[in-house]
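Input record, target 12 of the design panel.
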């Protein structure tokens, strides 16, 4: 899942600051590729970002983010419901051209992103999961920080249920904002 832009920038800045504050011995500086955790295991980017967020006081969700092998998606369905600042009750079709897993990050899109018709994109990877929903000029995004998210991954299917009781919806036309609740049940087959 991706973090909101301001949160991503904050986490990157904190991560860079933490890396710059690290100590080295005899002029041998550790790099991100060979950084070792206290137990001797290599730390990945998601773990470093999570540690930076914890040290910055940013709440970290307790959600297991699955690793999804590289694949494309050929079929699937979604039930999308949004209520509040704007409303959606729709089942847009899977956009096979915009739905892909690259082995590290996954984007599964239903409907056509940016169109007037209802659309949604599920993102999974880099230590987080999220969902973006839109219709016309209205858009809302929820991450595992604000949402309850469960996923199931098999060799040929990714499915899940995301519930976001309160995230901010935004209307790009009049710049109005308000709370929305999102519920999405999805399945994508490779």
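The sequence produced for target 12 reads:
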């Amino acid at each position: 899942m991706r973090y909101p832009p301001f949160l991503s920038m904050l986490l990157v800045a904190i991560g860079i600051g933490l890396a710059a504050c690290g100590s080295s011995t005899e002029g041998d500086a550790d790099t991100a590729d060979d950084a070792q955790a206290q137990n001797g295991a290599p730390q990945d980017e998601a773990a470093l970002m999570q540690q930076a967020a914890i040290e910055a006081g940013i709440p970290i969700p307790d959600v297991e983010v699955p690793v999804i092998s590289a694949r494309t998606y050929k079929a699937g369905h979604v039930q999308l419901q949004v209520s509040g600042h704007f409303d959606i009750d729709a089942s847009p079709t899977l956009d096979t051209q915009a739905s892909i897993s690259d082995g590290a990050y996954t984007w599964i899109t239903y409907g056509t992103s940016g169109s007037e018709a209802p659309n949604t994109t599920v993102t999974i990877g880099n230590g987080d999961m999220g969902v973006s929903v839109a219709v016309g000029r209205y858009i809302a995004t929820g991450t595992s920080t604000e949402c309850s998210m469960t996923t199931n991954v098999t060799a040929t299917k990714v499915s899940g249920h995301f519930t976001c009781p309160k995230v901010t919806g935004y209307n790009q036309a009049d710049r109005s904002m308000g709370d929305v609740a999102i519920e999405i049940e999805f399945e994508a087959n490779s």
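The chain has two domains: 5-56, 71-189.
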